[in-house]
Amino acid sequence: MPLLKFNLRWNDDINVERDIEILHSHTFHDFHEAIKKSFIFPPTMEAVMYVSNDVWKKGQAISSVVEKNIRGAEALSMKRTPIGALLGQQYQKFIYSADHIKNWGLLIELISMNPDPTDVGPYPKTSREEGVSPATFGKQGAEKDSVTEIEDKFGINDIIQDEDVADLNIDNDLGVE
User: Fold this and answer.
1) How far apart are CA 115 and CA 2, in angstroms?
2) Phi-psi bin for 44: left (phi > 0), alpha (psi -120 to 50), beta?
3) By C-alpha distance, which of 41, 39, 52 is closest to 10?
């Protein structure tokens, strides 16, 4: 069973990326669930994926709300359509459009295909994350970045503030104002 690796980029911020690995036989619904988990989207959020060409023009739609694949329908069902059925190019592209008030969108590109993977771990899975998901913007208690965590752990901000106070005292002892 071929293993596919897709790169997903936030269409409004190129610094927000994820790589998701998924099997050729998984459905677009499986992919949609992996995307929601990776980007911390609401679990009930619906979306539409579009097959795309090289210049990101939308083609065939695959919807999370469509239940059956009907010939000539406007959109295919994510639950009934395997990803492998719509891979037409070596570096196939898709556009992901979330049905959300903020109109979130992702640009998805197939970056590798392994015809005989040795790792048979649980798929789909996120193999790389870059940047903060816009779904977490403005939330209280968001995770701290690594620099803030180190500063907090070792009390670096407290040390710097104490040194600033000590410098002020030294200057005042020398008569400098």
Assistant:
1) 4
2) alpha
3) 39
Give tens-digit pLDDT for 146-167.
566 566 666 665 555 545 444 5
**Residue in this structure with the two tokens 């620099």, named with its chain if needed:** 147
Residues forming beta bridges with residue 10, ordered by sequence position: 13, 106
What is the Cα–Cα distance from 22 to 34, expressed in whole angstroms? 9
pTM metric for this prediction = 0.75
- Residues 60 and 48 sit within 8 Å (Cβ to Cβ): no
Three-state DSSP state, 149: helix
Which class for 86: exposed (0-12), middle (13-18), buried (19 or more C-beta within 10 A)? middle
- Residues 6 or more apart from 173 whose CB is under 8 A from it? none
Q: What pairing do the DSSP bridges indicate for beta strands 13-23 and 105-114?
A: unpaired
**Order of strands, sheet of 3-10, starting from the edge strand that comes earlier in the sequence:** 75-77, 58-63, 46-52, 93-99, 105-114, 3-10, 13-23, 125-130
**CA–CA distance, 36 with 97 (Å, rounded to integer):** 12
